[in-house]
From TrEMBL:
Reaction(s) this enzyme catalyzes, per UniProt: (S)-malate + a quinone = a quinol + oxaloacetate
Alphabetical list of InterPro entries matching this protein: FAD/NAD-bd_sf, MQO
Domain of life from the UniProt record: Bacteria
Gene3D superfamilies: FAD/NAD(P)-binding domain
Pfam family, one: Mqo
Family stated for the protein in its record: Belongs to the MQO family.
Protein name: Probable malate:quinone oxidoreductase
Gene for this chain: mqo
Keywords tagged on the record: FAD, Flavoprotein, Oxidoreductase, Tricarboxylic acid cycle
EC number(s) reported in the record: 1.1.5.4
Cofactor or coenzyme needed: FAD
A GO biological process held by the record: tricarboxylic acid cycle
Organism this protein belongs to: Phyllobacterium myrsinacearum
Entry GO MF terms: (S)-2-hydroxyglutarate dehydrogenase activity; L-malate dehydrogenase (quinone) activity
Pathway linked to the protein: Carbohydrate metabolism; tricarboxylic acid cycle; oxaloacetate from (S)-malate (quinone route): step 1/1
C-alpha cells in the first residue's frame, strides 16, 4: 500500500520529498510477500462470499461488481507503470490464471447456477462458463477431477479473466523505481517509536534502528501515511488522533498446504474457490490455487486459520494486548459475543491435525498424498473492530481509511480484498486527504493518464470495458485473450429481481 502511494505521489508531484520507514531489513517481507498471501487478483469472479443470497433467495451481485471494478483500476495502474518503466516484465508479477468456483451437493450446485445467471447482468463477468458435467469440468481442472466419484453432484464456473499476482514482486519493483528518485529516502531496519503533532500542525515521526537500537532519527512531515498492514493500528493509536479511538483489531493468521512437484502442479491452472460447509462461516472456504512464485509454478491449498496475538508475522506477542484501550475494550468484547460462531470456527481450526488438513485437501484433490505437500505459515491479517452506537462494536469487513480531520495523517486498516485493490484504495485516499489538489486540472489530467477510465463505471459502459480489457491484456502480456462482450446477452434491468435483506458475510481476507 505504501509503495503504491509513493509511486502515485511521485508522479503527481515529482518535487515532493518522500521518506519511507520500514521495520524489517527489506520491503515486502510481511503481507505483501508472495508466500504470505493467496496472490489472487480479486475480481469476484470466483469468491462466492461477494455474491450472497438475500432473504428472498435472489443472488445479489452489487458487491461483486464493486470488487471487479476496483481490480480494473489496478490493471490499468499496472499497465501505466509498465509504460512508465516503473514495472518490468509483466510475467514476473502477473499471469493469466482462470478463476473458478467449484462446489458439490444439491444446495450448493443450485446456488452456483443462480449466481452464474445473476452475473449475466454485468459485462464485467462476460466469458464465464458454467457446467455440472464431470468430463467438461475435468478439462478445466484435471487434477481436481482425478479419482473423483462420478456420482457426486458437482458444479463449476470458469472465467478466463482471472489472474495470479505476486504483490511482493510489484512492491520490490515500485521501491526500486522510487530509490532512483532524488526525492525519495528509504529507512530499513527502522521502527517508529513516536508520532507527535508539531505546533504548526505538521508531524514529527521518531524511529530507532532495530538492529542495535543505537541509531535514531526524526522526520518532520506535512502528511503521514500509516500503511503498515497489521501494524497500522498501533501507529494510529500512537498518533493520538481522536478518529482512531473507535477502532480495535483482532489478528487472524493463515497457513497453506504447498505442492511444488512439477508432475502435479503442471496439471492444474486455476484458482478454484469452494463454498462454506453448512453452519460454517464463509471465511472457512479454502481454495486450490495455481501460484507463480520464485520463478516456478506451485499449487497452494488453504487457508487454514491460525491464531497469534501478533499483528504482523514478524511482530510481537504483545501487539494485541498493547492495543487494548478503555475506548475499544467494550467493542472487542461485544464482537466476541456477537460473532461467537467465528470464535468456534477459529478454535476448530487450531485443533486440526495434519490428517484433518489432508482430508480437507482431498475434497478438492481426491488423490492427494501427504508426502507431496508441506505446511506453510502465511501472514497475519488484522480484522477491524469498530465502535458502534447501537451494537457496541461490529466486525468490519474490507479496508477502511481513517484520517485526522485536517487530513494531515491517515491510516489504512483492514485486510480484504487486500493488495489487489491497492491502486483504487490509494486513489480514494487522495480524495480524502488531498481533495483540493485532486480537484485541480493538473492532477485530474495526470490521474486519467495513469487510470484512463478513472471516474467511469465500466459496468455501465461495456464498450469502454472491452477496450480496457484489450489494452491492459496486451501490455500485461496476459496469455488468455479477454472474452468478447455480447451486449445483447446482458440481462435487462427489468429482468433483475429486487433485492431483499442480505446477511453480512465474514471474510478472513487471505
Amino acid at each position: 500500500m505504501s509503495a503504491t502511494l509513493g509511486v502515485l505521489l511521485s508522479e503527481l508531484e515529482p518535487s515532493w520529498t518522500i521518506e519511507m520507514i520500514e521495520r524489517l531489513d527489506d520491503v515486502a517481507m510481511e503481507s505483501s510477500n508472495g508466500w504470505n498471501n493467496a496472490g489472487t487478483g480479486h475480481s469476484a469472479l470466483a469468491e462466492l462470499n461477494y455474491t450472497p443470497e438475500d432473504a428472498n433467495g435472489n443472488v445479489q451481485i452489487a458487491k461483486a461488481v464493486e470488487i471487479n471494478e476496483a481490480f480494473q483500476i489496478s490493471r490499468q495502474f499496472f499497465t501505466h507503470q509498465i509504460g512508465a518503466g516503473v514495472l518490468k516484465d509483466p510475467r514476473s508479477f502477473i499471469n493469466s490464471t482462470p478463476h473458478m468456483s467449484f462446489v458439490w451437493g444439491d444446495d450448493n450446485t443450485k446456488f452456483l447456477e443462480k449466481r452464474y445467471e445473476a452475473l449475466k447482468a454485468s459485462p464485467l463477468f462476460s466469458g464465464m462458463r458454467f457446467s455440472t458435467d464431470h468430463d467438461e469440468i475435468a478439462k478445466w481442472i484435471p487434477l481436481m477431477m482425478e479419482g473423483r466419484d462420478r456420482s457426486q453432484k458437482i458444479a463449476a464456473t470458469w472465467s478466463p479473466l482471472g489472474t495470479d499476482v505476486n504483490f511482493g514482486e510489484i512492491t520490490h519493483q515500485y521501491i526500486a523505481h522510487l530509490k532512483r528518485q532524488s526525492t525519495f529516502n528509504l529507512h530499513t531496519s527502522s521502527e517508529v517509536k513516536d508520532i507527535q503533532r508539531n505546533a504548526d500542525g505538521t508531524w514529527r515521526v521518531s524511529y530507532t534502528n532495530t538492529k542495535d537500537n543505537s541509531a535514531t532519527g526524526t522526520i518532520n512531515a506535512k502528511f503521514v501515511f500509516l500503511g503498515a498492514g497489521g501494524g497500522a493500528l498501533p501507529l494510529l493509536q500512537m498518533s493520538g488522533i481522536p478518529e482512531g479511538d473507535d477502532y480495535a483489531g483482532f489478528p487472524v493468521g493463515g497457513s497453506f498446504l504447498v505442492c511444488d512437484k512439477p508432475g502435479l502442479v503442471n496439471q492444474h491452472l486455476a484458482k478454484a474457490y469452494g463454498q462454506a460447509s453448512v453452519g460454517a462461516p464463509p471465511m472457512s472456504v479454502p481454495h486450490f490455487d495455481t501460484r507463480f512464485l520464485d520463478g516456478k509454478r506451485v499449487v497452494l491449498f488453504g487457508p487454514f486459520a491460525t491464531f497469534s496475538t501478533k499483528f504482523l508475522k514478524y511482530g510481537s506477542y504483545f501487539d494485541l494486548p498493547a492495543s487494548v484501550t478503555l475506548d475499544n475494550i467494550w467493542p472487542m468484547l461485544q464482537v466476541g459475543f456477537d460473532e461467537f460462531n467465528l470464535v468456534e470456527y477459529l478454535a476448530g481450526q487450531l485443533m486440526m491435525s495434519d490428517e484433518d488438513r489432508l482430508q480437507a485437501l482431498r475434497e478438492y484433490f481426491p488423490q492427494a498424498k501427504a508426502e507431496d505437500w508441506r505446511l506453510w505459515q502465511a501472514g497475519q491479517r488484522v480484522q477491524i473492530i469498530k465502535r458502534d452506537p447501537e451494537k457496541g462494536g461490529v466486525l468490519k469487513l474490507g479496508t477502511e481509511i481513517v484520517s485526522s480531520e485536517d487530513g494531515s495523517i491517515a491510516a489504512l486498516l483492514g485486510a480484504s480484498p487486500g493488495a489487489s485493490t491497492a491502486a483504487p484504495i490509494m486513489l480514494d485516499l487522495l480524495k480524502k486527504v488531498f481533495s483540493k489538489k485532486l480537484a485541480t486540472r493538473e492532477w485530474q489530467a495526470k490521474v486519467r493518464t495513469i487510470v484512463p477510465t478513472y471516474g467511469v463505471k465500466l459496468n455501465d459502459n461495456p464498450e469502454t470495458l472491452a477496450a480496457e480489457w484489450a489494452a491492459t491484456a496486451d501490455r500485461l502480456q496476459l496469455a488468455i485473450t479477454p472474452p468478447a462482450i455480447d451486449i445483447s446477452a446482458l440481462a435487462k434491468p427489468d429482468n433483475v429481481k429486487p433485492g431483499g435483506e442480505v446477511k453480512r458475510v465474514p471474510d478472513m481476507a487471505l
